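Memo to structure team: turn this sequence into structure tokens by end of day. - J.P.
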Amino acid sequence: MYKMLVLYPPPADPAHFKSYYESTHIPLAASLPGLKGYRYSFEPEALGPPGTASPYFCVFEGDFDSKEAFFTCLGSEIGGKVGADVANYASGGSIMLHYEAKGG
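Reply from structure team:
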């Protein structure tokens, strides 16, 4: 399984982020070619000393069959639209990681 992880730092307008993300961005992302499944959360918590705040407001994880499927998705027309849409809600930007998941 190949994974895509998107980390979103806190935005300037959290209410706008949540509303736009769930009503517009997630439905668009759900149509990505080759996407086998996805999950997201507005509640990523940091593990650290008491009072440690998470550096992230939202996290998204997507599943693909392979690295090739992931890159094909990114290069697709829908992939371009999803990438361009991030500026419409993520004023804090985003960090995308991708990797082959291993383990049991």
